[in-house]
Amino acid sequence: MSKMSELSYDIETMLSAGSHPVSIARTLGVGLPMIYDVLEQLECLDEEQALADMPQDDPVTEAEIIEMAEYYGYESEEYSEFDR
Q1: Distance CA 17, CA 12 (A)
Q2: Which tens digits make up the pLDDT trace of 11-62?
């Protein structure tokens, strides 16, 4: 593991343990911007995971499409491709 990867891992571990960014910077002897860069990356990953974990909407069925078309006044010929 590279020195930067190892340092990022240490920062991530300390942040996860609840350490304050200033404390981490002092302990590891790095600049505060590096701590916040790692924190920002973690937040982005958390947001992406939260989006991935969200349930997907059920796909619209053909019957629902026909029902919507009839509701909005479309004639059956206009959506006949959905008829079986």
Answers
A1: 9
A2: 999 988 988 999 999 999 999 999 999 988 888 777 777 767 666 666 677 7
63 contacts 82 by C-beta, under 8 angstroms: no
How is residue 27 written in tokens? 């302990």
Spatial contact of 11 and 35, defined as CB atoms under 8 Å apart: yes
d(CA 8, CA 28): 11
The model carries a pTM of 0.54
* Helix intervals (H) in 1-84: 3-16, 21-28, 32-53, 62-71
How far, in Å, CA of 38 to CA of 35, rounded? Answer: 5
